[in-house]
Amino acid sequence: MNMLANLGLMPAFMGGKGPKPSLPAIAWLDMAGINAALNPRTRVPADAAGVIAGKWANFLKIIDDYTVQFNLSSPRPNFPYNLWSVGRSTVMSTNSLLSPSCGTTVAAGTGPFMVKSKGTDPNTTVLVANPNYWRKAKDGSSLPKASTVTFKTVGDAAQRGNAVRTGQADIATFGATSGTQINELKKLTGKVTVYQGPRDISWNFHLNSTQLPFAKKSARLAFASAIDTKAFATLMTKGNGDASYAIAPPMHPFYVKGVSPKYDVNKAKEYAAQYKAETGQDLKVVLPVNTTTESTKANQAICNMLGAAGIACSLMPPVTSTQLILRGFALQQQASWFNVNSGYYADFGLLFVTNTNLELSGFGFTDPTLTKCFEDARAVATKAAFAPCATKVAQEAYQVPTYNEGGTLVWNNKVSGIGATPLPGGAFRPIISGSGFDIASATKSKG
């Protein structure tokens, strides 16, 4: 049942009940060989459920009560990656999956907490301790330590910093572009702890090559050559991030050193002039922003760099982060800032460079040789195999690097036990990673 949910096929098999396809479902469908049988726009079977049922029956075979066999449509060395949280898969009860409010109301699973409510506003979620949680603390005592946990989404970094500083919040997360706020919190030694994970998250502009201006390589190269990533990282991260010169961090399979266009204002001007000669139009760029102060500041900094190279640049009206991401997926904006090339595995980034029937990458449809390059390379899934594909993406500025970061977690001196949850193998949960941060052992003193 959970595999059907991961594939986004529950509605087709369960009379419309169950979760609809999500972004991770696209990767699962591709591994099952089902993508080709779906309508690329609606994500439902193009010819009734017969074809899907046949594909499904071949994909998953039940051997016995504790064994299933997966028959993949093509070699996938990293298939196990997609079975755990960083692969964005979940395991839920059948009742939860079939519930119209799946995952949004009270639900019990194998995790330390259960969802009690989504709170009084859409930005608040309240969790309560799961009395049946199976894991124990290092000393053998029960987990989780906290009886309730309230998550609240606060977009403005200054507000988050102030909430931790004043005790309105006990724990807060920050991105590296909130460098000013992070550095202010670092000064509060003894009052708050600032922890940063490894800088394995890479932020790139994905340029929409399905329409002008970035359908032209000259425009993409002009954009890339105008960006001073060192100055940007200094301005926005204040030492809490690194300037990026590749489309992925060094540990990622897409990392190729020294092939992305270098910062060169004169080159940017030459490419912009070439674009005008090719199209008869001046190069003009419009960047999307969300409603946070950091987004406006970061994109305005990029616009200023483009302006120094004679490239006109303006900002779109602010929208929510969700709207901005969905517009990017639908290729409704010239550029999108994504962090999909992160960590040690390529599988999530592959969704943005192959033909997944979701318009996640402009070049996936305008350069089929690139799509095939990545599809062939994923059967091996090594840096060497991905190198020629990633090199072309970088050299031709389909993706333009800006900065690398690690997750930043901040907590006040009343909180203890973060990162102290033991794993079955004897190690401990990471304090913060791509799949979140550890709160099973976290507790708060009353003082």
Number of domain modules: 3
Which consecutive residue ranges, at least 5 long each, have pLDDT under 50? 39-43
> How does the major sheet shape up?
4 strands, antiparallel
| Alpha-beta content class | alpha+beta
The helix content, as a percent range, equals 25-40%
CATH architecture of the largest domain: Roll
CATH topology of the largest domain: Dipeptide-binding Protein, domain 3
Any idea what the CATH superfamily of the largest domain is called? Answer: Dipeptide-binding Protein, Domain 3
Q: What is the oligomeric state here? A: single chain
Helix tally equals 16
| Rg for CA atoms | 23 Å
- Summed over residues and divided by their number, the pLDDT gives a mean of 88
Outline type: globular
Overview of this structure, please?
The protein has three domains: 2-98, no CATH class; 105-153 and 419-447, no CATH class; 201-405, Dipeptide-binding Protein, Domain 3 (Dipeptide-binding Protein, domain 3), CATH 3.10.105. Helices cover 32% and strands 17% of the residues. The chain has helices at 2-7, 10-13, 23-31, 49-59, 94-98, 157-166, 179-186, 217-225, 229-237, 265-279, 293-308, 321-329, 347-350, 363-366, 368-377, 383-395; strands at residues 60-64, 67-70, 113-117, 124-129, 148-152, 171-174, 192-196, 201-207, 242-243, 284-287, 312-315, 335-338, 399-405, 408-412, 415-416, 432-433, 436-437, 443-444. Helix 15 (368-377) packs antiparallel against helix 16 (383-395). It is globular, with a radius of gyration of 23 Å. The two termini are 46 Å apart.
